[in-house]
Each structure stands twice: as C-alpha cells, then as structure tokens.
Amino acid sequence: MVPHASLRDYVREYQVFRFVFDGKAAPPPKFHAPRPEHCITFYLRDCQKFSRLDSAEVIAYPKCVVNGIYNRPIYRHGGLDFWAIKVVLQPSAFYHFLRIPSTHITNTFLDAEALWGKDVRSTCEQLDNSPDLTAMIGIIERFLTDRIRKIPEPLLPIDRAVQHLMSQGTGGSVESVASQSCLSVRQFIRKFEERVGVSAKTFNRIVRFNKAYRLKNNQPELDWLFIALATGYCDYQHLAKEFQEFTTLTPRSFYEIEKTSPERHFGLHEG
Predict the structure, then answer these.
(1) How far is residue 109's CA from residue 188's CA, in Å, rounded to a whole number?
(2) What is the rounded CA–CA span in Å between residue 17 and residue 82?
C-alpha cells in the first residue's frame, strides 16, 4: 500500500499481513533473510517472536516494534492469529526520526513505546478499536505525520542519493553516489553508515540479494544462472557466495526453505 504523498520522503510503503491458523499445531517459523529496510510494525493480534540461528531462545517483540536493517538471517515465529501492519521506511528515515546513528539498531530492534511513549500507546489502542483497514492506516499516518513534524531539518542530498540507490538496485558506484550527495567519498561513507546502519557496499549487496530471491519467488521457472546475470552478479558462483553470506545456505537450499514458509500455506509468496 502506498503512503500519503506528504509522507513519501520518509515512508516507502505499508505491508499488511493476516494469517489465522486453526490451533491444532504451532505455525511454522519463517526463515527471514536480510532485507534493505527499516520498519515500524504494529501487531494487532498475537505478537510475533523471533530467534537467532545460533540460539534456541525465542524472544517476543513488543506491541509496536522498530526493526533496523539486518545483514544476517533470523527465524520469525507468528501466533495463531497473526495480524500486522508494517511501515517500511525510507533508508534514512529512522535517523531523522530520532537523530541517533542507525547502527544502534542494526540486526536488532527497539520497543517503539520506549522511544515515543504515550503516542505509541494511544496509537495501538486506537488500532485495537478500529473498524477497518482504511481507518487503521489513517491512524498510523497521523502517528507518522506527528513524527515527521518534529524532524528538525529537511532531507539532504545524501538522503535523496540513498533513496536513489535503493530504487536502482545495484546502480552506481560509491564515488558516483557520493558525488550526487555533494560529499567527498570519505564523508559519504561515514554519513551513509550513520544514516542506514550498514556500509554503502553492504547495503548495495543486500539490495541485489533481495532482488534475486524475489525474482525467483515471482518466476520459479527461471534458473539460477539467469537470475544471477539478470540481477547484476558476475556468474552463478558470485550469486551463491552472496547467498551463503546472507543466509548460510546455497540458493537452491534457501529456495526450498522459502517454499515451506507460512505464506506458502495460504498460496502466497513475497515477490
């Protein structure tokens, strides 16, 4: 879902999820690969939980959670009635909302109520009592508008350049994007990581990886060599190395896991 025009400098899109299981068995966990996004998620029914690949501990998210960018996979566990609205932010929006380096939330999360207090509590209460999705989006957009009004300075050329890098996938070297930002390469590298939470090189790699596996989800008949070349990799080996880095798996093994994810039980996929 597309946000209101007044929010698009800071919000990319809204994603709405609703899965209801019959209660006879626990919902299967979702193997969640890195994505080039920060997000604010409101849980309307059962809250989500997560676990790391190297730990058996399962941790519950709060009612409203702010997630940073991840460069490693995790498992996410939904409840029997999983209903969530995810606000996918522009790459540097979190930095502008809080004026703290986005590296503070790389590979982790923050409780939104701890950040914004009663505004989050009030928003969650209104969502719980809302009659329909249109009204819910209106409530969330009022919350976001209040956050944006409190931002002390406008977006800078570097913020526009980061958004361009996101939209272009793998387009542009660090030098060319730094030039668009009106910064030296050294300044750009430092400010990019401060705003996004990972280096420009890592962010570009996550964008390309994300593009590759979503292409496979959309068109499963395509072979991996075609996908590698279509998404900017040198060859299959290059793609396989990136999949190993971001998922610990080969492309084929990762796709087999993707096919068992909860949304596939409902005939859906993330494209």
Answers:
(1) 25
(2) 7
- The pLDDT tens digits of the residues spanning 75-128 come to 998 888 889 999 999 999 999 998 899 999 999 999 999 999 999 999 999 999
Half-sphere exposure of residue 95: CA atoms within 13 angstroms, side-chain side: 25
Cα-based torsion angle of the residue sequence 256, 258, 264, 270 in order, rounded to the nearest 10 degrees: -140
267 CB-side CA count, 13 A: 0
CA dihedral 120, 160, 205, 192 (to 10 degrees): -80
Measured from the Cβ of residue 218, the count of other Cβ atoms closer than 10 Å reads 11
Give the dihedral sign, CA 184/187/192/195: negative
Helices (H), the chain: 93-98, 112-116, 118-128, 133-149, 157-168, 174-180, 185-196, 200-218, 224-230, 236-247, 251-258, 262-265
Asked if 233 contacts 239 with a C-beta cutoff of 8 angstroms, the reply is yes
Residue 217: how many CB atoms within 10 A of its CB? 16
Residue 203 to residue 197: CA distance in whole angstroms = 9
φ, ψ at 192 (rounded to 5°): -60, -50
Q: Rounded to two decimals, what is the model's pTM?
A: 0.90
pLDDT score recorded for residue 169:
61
Instruction: Count other Cβ atoms within 10 Å, centred on residue 33.
Output: 21
49-89 pLDDT, tens digit per residue, is: 999 998 889 999 999 999 999 999 999 988 888 899 999 99
> Cα–Cα distance between 13 and 86 in angstroms, integer?
8
